[in-house]
Design goal:
Low-confidence stretches: none
Largest sheet: 7 strands, mixed
CATH topology of the largest domain: FAD/NAD(P)-binding domain
Bound molecules: flavin-adenine dinucleotide
Helix content: 25-40%
Radius of gyration: 23 Å
Distance between the termini: 66 Å
Shape: globular
Strand content: 15-25%
Structural class: alpha/beta
Length: 409
């Protein structure tokens, strides 16, 4: 029986990154995946949602294109094509991932794996000997008590990928990244959206000023939200909130977080969502890279991004984390010519500064998902504001907003 140096359970971002890095470093690796390579991120998470979001944004732009002088009198909409485009995108990305994993020398076994002992992994039909076991088995949608997923009225973020047509109205429980991105997708398509959030603000993990801006944007888009509220009861297809409001949506998306999936056995190395730490694909990737290739990374500088218009991105310290020794500086994106050209003037760039260094960045703006990396590079490398001022930022761009803020200091 062939013996491998590493046996990895789970072929999502954590598992395939660890596998490819270890193989590149000369180790023999066997990877077990019970479903499809790419895990939640590629098959049920990051990629499919961004594909839906893209279609919905184009739809929303067409609906309002008159105001920029583009008159579209006749257009049709076919949700099945939106789904087909999402499926094609996922399949294409998966094919190139499968090829990359194969070319790296990792052996992939498509089967559910369980651990027999610290050197033995079992599938239904075979036994494999390994020197080390890595668990990268990911996470699954969390269920609230009294709100069991039924795939029909109460949906998880997995179930929602199976809808065949757009609802007229939807109630989303939870306003983290998943809840907000789906709220944006549905709202762009003209679906009536309501959100219930237990915390004081939408997007509770964000900087409070970011949360408040998101609330303002959602109000403008007629997305209803109920803060510091929960579902107390469901009667038939009517949802009754703690505060008594009754909502009768076509269905409910329950997006209240994810819980780790871990085999019930001791294992020293657990990577990605299965750890229950930061449940993001790039965190899983960098954690795996740190483990397999000893590339250090500072988990406190893991960026968060919420996609849609405008994008929301942040890293480092937030308003609620700082004391008066920090200074906050802010630029509304209305100050940027590019934002006016793009008709994307709602948002801001906010930096948290101390001793000539940046400690936090909070961006609500078109291109925020790219902008955040510019600031991250400054933060991680402790580049002084005086040195950043020497960089020539192109005009007109959103990036020059970073320069404009710092130039004013
Ligand atoms: C709707 C949604 C949108 C998201 N959007 C983003 C985003 O935009 N950006 C971002 O960074 N993150 C996003 N995420 C989170 C991201 O998907 C996860 O953080 C990431 O997939 C974690 O990677 P992982 O490898 O730890 O786990 P997973 O991707 O969950 O992979 C685990 C794999 O292990 C396999 N497995 C489990 N048990 C076994 C077993 N016993 N035997 C064999 N195989 C097994 C599973 O089938 C799965 O393929 C999103 C998640 C969701 C649900």
């Amino acid at each position: 029986m062939e013996r491998y140096e590493y046996g990895i359970i789970g072929g999502g971002p954590a598992g395939y990154t660890a596998g490819m890095c270890l193989a590149k470093n000369g180790h023999s690796v066997i990877l077990f995946e019970k479903d499809k390579l790419g895990g939640t991120c590629l098959n049920r998470g990051c990629i499919p949602t961004k594909s839906f979001l893209h279609s919905s944004e184009i739809y929303a732009q067409i609906m309002t294109s008159d105001k920029i002088g583009v008159h579209i009198d006749d257009f049709s909409f076919d949700f099945s094509k939106v789904v087909e485009k999402k499926d094609t995108t996922v399949e294409r990305v998966r094919k190139s991932l499968e090829l990359a994993v194969k070319n790296s020398g990792v052996k992939t076994v498509y089967a559910k794996a369980c651990i027999k002992d610290k050197n033995t992994i079992l599938t239904e039909s075979e036994e494999y000997k390994v020197d080390n076991i890595i668990i990268a088995s990911g996470s699954k949608p969390k269920e609230l008590s009294g709100l069991k997923f039924d795939g029909e009225f109460i949906l998880s973020s997995d179930d929602i990928l199976n809808i065949k047509e757009l609802p007229k109205s939807v109630l989303i429980i939870g306003s983290g990244a998943i809840g907000l991105e789906w709220a944006r997708i549905f709202s762009n398509f003209g679906v009536e959206v309501s959100i219930v959030e237990a915390a004081e603000h939408l997007l509770p993990l964000a900087d409070t000023e970011v949360s408040k801006r998101v609330e303002r944007i959602f109000k403008q888009k007629k997305v209803k939200f109920y803060l510091q509220n929960t579902v107390s009861e469901i009667k038939g297809r009517t949802v009754i909130l703690k505060t008594g409001e009754e909502i009768s949506p076509d269905f409910v998306l329950s997006a209240v977080g994810r819980e780790p999936v871990k085999p019930d056995c001791p294992c020293e190395t657990i990577l990605g969502d299965a750890c229950g730490e930061i449940q993001l694909a790039h965190y899983a990737i960098h954690q795996a890279q740190q483990f397999a290739s000893k590339v250090p990374f500072d988990k406190n500088l893991t960026p968060s991004v919420i996609y849609g218009e405008p994008e929301i991105a942040w890293a480092g310290l937030r308003e609620q984390d700082i004391d008066e020794s920090y200074k906050k500086v802010m630029l509304p994106v209305t100050a940027l010519g590019k934002a006016w050209c793009d008709d994307a003037t709602d948002g801001f760039i906010k930096l948290i500064i101390k001793d000539n260094l940046i400690y936090g960045a909070h961006i609500v703006s078109k291109e925020a998902s790219s902008l955040i990396h510019t600031v991250l590079a400054f933060m991680q490398n402790k580049i002084k504001i005086e040195d950043i001022k020497q960089i020539c930022f192109a005009h007109p761009t959103y990036s020059e907003g970073i320069f404009d803020i710092l130039a004013g200091l």
